[in-house]
Amino acid sequence: MDAIRQKLRRNLSMHDKNANLDEHDDLDEESTGHLHKDIEDAETNEKYPQGRPGSFLNRLISHGNKKTEDEIAAAQAAADKSGQTTMVGSATTTSGRTT
């Protein structure tokens, strides 16, 4: 019975729009196989360099990009609060002015 539940859970998790991508223990060989196939397809496909919209690869990349943007925004807010100069990307920001 547990094997059936695990299989159903795995099949349903592939279609979950709000998947928790930080759970590394939830990955299995089937999921990683799909991921590697998506990566290879993305490398050869110039139309969707970050994977097809809605694909597992695209969701992983989007999740990573959002996390990075949140970290940059938090660092920027902390720097603005303290009045320090920070480097964000290739621009230098000093108290709200970009140089």
Overall shape = flat
**In which order are the strands of the major sheet placed?**
1-2-3
What is the straight-line distance between the termini? 63 Å
The percentage helix is 55-70%
Largest sheet: 3 strands, antiparallel
How much is the radius of gyration in Å? 19 Å
Number of domains: 1
Counting DSSP E segments of at least 2 residues, the number of strands comes to 3
Fraction in beta strands = 5-15%
The chain-level mean pLDDT equals: 71
Number of helices, where a helix is a run of at least 4 consecutive DSSP H or I residues: 3
The helix/strand series, from N terminus to C terminus, equals: HHHEEE
Specify the structural class. mainly alpha
- The low-confidence runs, each spanning 5 or more residues with pLDDT under 50, are none
Explain what the structure shows:
The protein is mainly α. It has one domain (27-98). The chain is built from three helices and three strands; from the N terminus they run H-H-H-E-E-E. Strands 1-2-3 form a three-stranded antiparallel β-sheet, covered by helices on one side. Strand 1 (85-88) and strand 2 (91-94) form a beta hairpin. The chain starts with a helix and ends with a strand. The model has no long low-confidence stretch (mean pLDDT 71).
Task: Name the descriptors.
3 helices; mainly alpha; 99 residues; three-stranded antiparallel sheet
